[in-house]
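Narrative of activities, Objective 1.

The group set out to show that a structural description can be obtained from nothing but a protein's sequence at a throughput compatible with the screening campaign. Below is one input-output pair from the validation batch, recorded exactly as produced.
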Amino acid sequence: MVWTRRRTVLLLLLALTVLSPLALYTSRLSAALNPIQTRDFPGEITNQGRGVKADKLNALPLETVSSLKEPVGVVFSEELGGLAKESTGSEGQELPSRKAGEHKSRVLSEVTAAADGTEVIEQVTRQEAQDGGLASAVSDEQEKTTGSQQQSSSEESLQETVPKQTSAKVVMDNSQAARTDGKAKSSVLPDTRIRNIKDQLIKAKVYLGLGSIRANSQYLKDLRQRIREVQKVLGDASKDTDLPKNANEKVKALEQMLIKGKQMQDDCSIVVKKLRAMLHSAEEQLHAHKKQTVFLTQLAAKTLPKGLHCLPLRLANEYFSLDPGQQQFPNQHKLSNPKLYHYALFSDNILATAVVVNSTVLNAKYPSDHVFHIITDRLNYAPMRMWFLSNPPGKATIEVQHIGEFTWLNDSYSPVLKQLGSQSMIDYYFGTNHANPDSNLKYRNPKYLSILNHLRFYLPEIYPKLDKIVFLDDDIVVKKDLTGLWSINMKGKVNGAVETCGEGFHRFDRYLNFSNPVIAKNFDPHACGWAFGMNVFDLAEWKKQNITQIYHSWQKLNQDRSLWKLGTLPPGLITFWNKTFPLSRSWHVLGLGYNPHVNSRDIERAASIHYNGNMKPWLEIGLPKFRSYWSKYLNYDQHFLRECNINP
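Output recorded for this entry:
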């Protein structure tokens, strides 16, 4: 009886010992597999190895709290169809501390090698179709080695352990950001070897000037030899990769010489004085180079290229071979019709004038309604006429005149013409009198001696039958139809222009001498300037307000150039003071002759673009990025251009 009871107790204890772990395992396993019961990762699942492998049910390899390791990250490559992975990080790497609130979602993959084969544990994220996401996949090797029950369990586990709101795009962004941070931390200044070599050369040159070094003739000879060797190695290299293989050897030899020199020279104050002298000398050289650069730029702007010198000669020769009847332009009856669209263009540059006319006509809605009044000097009169006779601008009307035709424009009528012919003005421009040289070379350009530059102030006298006219500089390119300028209500103003006060140097105090009481009394130094180049003039209002007389009175006051320097913009600002109507900036975009950073969107929206500055598009110093806007309106296959070797 007693034996039977003992056996029953033992059997119960044995059953309890066997069944209780099974019940506990089954309960936790069902909780891990049921997506409705939990949305979190399972806390602890022991590796029992029965039915479903526990390591395939976990997104992260199980670690103890005390030794939390960083999981292996996966970066998906689009080149392999979204299925290729690159493992970053390792299982034994400690998890770095992260900032609060930082996103910690990532795609994980662990690859472990076993004695009986390779087991691959993967987690693949699903991305929404509209994001062009990655399709989840399980490798063929895993499908072959697992049963149907294990496969279904594994798929459920993968879907459960990856939060649905986390997309592959966010994960990839985080991994890229992490890699970028790593690069930033380890980034080094580029071309450090080049910088170091140059520093060593400067130091060596300082040593050459020290008394204690020069006293040692043998050391001085060796140091110079090392400097020459390093300079030869350095050459024209601008990057570390340009240096030859023996560069390190030569630099180390120089460094050894400098160490010996440092031991020979104990007085640091002498070295400091020498460095200061070298710095002062370098500053003087820099200042001289800047002045030379300005001078050469101005010289290049004034110089006529060989092709542009050849062109008028060829055209003039061709013009004088024509019969008198062939030298006339058609449609001359349109020249005085105020109902048409008239343009004034004063230039001695044939190619530049051709581009202005061609660009205006090609972008006009009704080319036959446009009339171009071109005035040039006597020297370029025949070539200019020949160009437009041989290259007529479509249905537009052309008139070419020269200054000599305006007999009323003489020094008794025009103060500026009298000033331009004076000996003092010629001496100033051509530099025969150097007593008070002007520091700003741009005001010493001899082009200002030409009356062509000042004809814009005599428009009503030149075209007495017209009511409104658009003035165009020869460095303008028209990109849109300009007929809208004639319909603008200028509200009694004479001059329609685009203001240029976006920057400080385009205000009145930049152009006028406000230390003179006459200027200070009549004008505001902070008033907004405007630009010549593309202006619409109401000639009827001009006559009514007697603008030409105002211009003459101010020119007489400025005989000694005490009110402003030279040029046409300062007297223009004065003459049209309170008589200028501001146009929309899109009508006229400036700066293509000096500013390489002109906004491309502004250029595309502009009705006209202006190459104001020294870097004209027909010169070699022109900005290459803007030259195509100009050259597209020239036919370089034209035989005159080919004969003079003028190319885009």
